[in-house]
Amino acid sequence: MSPTVSDEITIRPLQSLEDYRRCVALQYEIWGDDFRECAPPSLLMATQQVAGVAAGAFDADGELLGFVFGIGGLRDGRPAHWSDMLGVRDGHRDLGLGRRLKAYQREALLESGISVAYWTYDPLEARNAHVNINRLGARPVEYVPDMYGEIERGSLLSGLSTDRFIVEWELDHPRTEAALAGESTPMLSSAPVVNCELIEDVPTPRELPLPDEVEVRIEIPADLHLVKRESLDLARSWRKTTRHAFTHYMDRGYAVTGFQCEARSGRCSYVLERA
Known about the structure:
Layout: E1 4-6, E2 9-13, H1 17-31, H2 41-47, E3 53-58, E4 64-75, E5 78-88, H3 97-111, E6 116-121, H4 126-135, E7 139-144, E8 164-170, H5 174-180, E9 196-199, E10 202-205, E11 215-220, H6 224-230, H7 232-250, E12 254-261, E13 268-274
Parallel strand pairs: 5-6
Antiparallel strand pairs: 1-2, 2-3, 3-4, 4-5, 6-8, 7-8, 9-10, 11-13, 12-13
């Protein structure tokens, strides 16, 4: 892939030993000094030899502001890409760098003949849900309880089980093209929320009867980290009720088709539809 340049930001493959070392340093800066899943220079380098992607966003002074990293392989018998990491330096988030890095990754994969990519994220992370579903056009296709096991103490999300969505990103799908072009506007659903009740005007997770409707919504907190800082028990309750609802519906053929945040109330929810 040729570098892409806009707004004095250049997105290009990591190429030199210095690039790789900067990427390692940025991983620790983003996820902490005790981060154990760091991709080392040797892996960042080798992956690019086998349809992997290791690219960075550099400013006019050559400073690495963000990166995307993933590996190539097979899934369900066809070429696929596993996007392992995406990180942007604090102070440069909410500027669209993450989406631009994903767009670069998409073009690189399409050029190499790969048309689908996968990654994981925490279903309770509203920001990630919005970006993945609304800004990229990806879709969660599998819910995996406690995928990565226990998180060590000191981590931002220690104390919670590591439930994850596996996301499928169909790179040449019209939905993806519309989302990346900013032409995708989520329609607000009025389907019933099946895991949450308003108690004194506060959304409160509850294990409720799960109705057999054509369309349902599963609510999550607007800011998981704020909830966790205020009450770990409440964060665990969100995890428990959403896990119960997601596994119930997805095991029965429902698909996640949207994610919405209501402007007035700030409440966030996934939309699931029966196939």
